[in-house]
Amino acid sequence: MLRGRFISVEGIDGAGKSTQLTWLVQYLQSRQLVLRQTREPGGTALGEKLRVLLLNDEMHLDTEALLMFAARNEHLQQVILPALAQGEWVLCDRFTDATYAYQCGGRGLAVERFATLEQWVQGREHGLIEPDLTLIFDVPLEVSQARMAGTRVLDRFEREQADFHSRVRAAYLQRAAQNPQRIRVIDASRSLELIQTELAQLMDEFLV
Ligand SMILES: Nc1ncnc2c1ncn2[C@@H]1O[C@H](COP(=O)(O)OP(=O)(O)OP(=O)(O)O)[C@@H](O)[C@H]1O
Ligand SMILES: [Mg+2]
Which end of the chain has less neighbouring CB within 10 Å, N or C? Predict the structure, then answer.
């Protein structure tokens, strides 16, 4: 059986990732694909427990980074790799680009540390296990903040200052510039309809 494809969606808090992911799942299901929708941090029973800690508990910055990759390892081993091997398509709300954006860009930790952790968790003989396609939903801070306003109790990351979110956004755009073959930046400040027209075109190209 053909290996399934791995798609991740990324972007700052409130950019519209979950909204677009839900749409994308329906769009791809209508193409008779078997899909697995999941998220990080999380996606497994243990990973969801780590998510609660990561989003709520104060901790050393290195601990945060290590827990992210611990949760990711569990997610890859238990869910993502078995699903892909069975020919399922995996759609993941955040993956390693988010770690580069938040822990390196936002928190300011050294990129080299993450390269080590990434290699440990995602490294294989033929190279890194990475998404086949990553969609970054990009919005200015004011837009994401307006979208989040009043809709939820903010978590530890969402409560950070504006300059933190600016650094996260900049780090995402830098990742996109460094990985043009894998990452597509979508202008998510537009209407849902316009974004979904672009997504449909992109998916149709990707399905070929
Ligand atoms: N293009 C859009 N135009 C207008 N509103 C939008 C658009 N995209 C998303 N929204 C709204 O903005 C809010 C945040 O969207 P969503 O929860 O999908 O963001 P998210 O990126 O998943 O956020 P988080 O990182 O916190 O999970 C929701 O209320 C959603 O309905
Ligand atoms: Mg979301």
Answer: C
Q: Model confidence over 81-139: pLDDT tens digits?
A: 999 999 999 999 999 999 999 999 999 999 999 999 999 999 999 999 999 999 999 99
| Angle ∠(60,79,153) on CA atoms, nearest 5 | 45
Domain of 170, in residue numbers: 6-207
Number of independent structural domains in the chain: 1
Residue 128 forms part of a structural domain:
yes
Mark out the alpha helices in the chain (DSSP H runs): 17-29, 45-56, 61-75, 81-85, 96-99, 111-122, 141-148, 162-178, 192-207
Q: Which of 12, 17, 19, 137 to mutate to test the pocket of ligand 1 (most atoms within 8 A of CB)?
A: 19
- 1 in any annotated domain: no
CATH number of the domain that residue 189 is part of: 3.40.50.300
Q: Report the separation in Å between the CA atom of 15 and the middle of ligand 1, taken as the mean of its atom positions.
A: 5
Ligand 1 centroid to Cα of residue 59, in Å, is 28
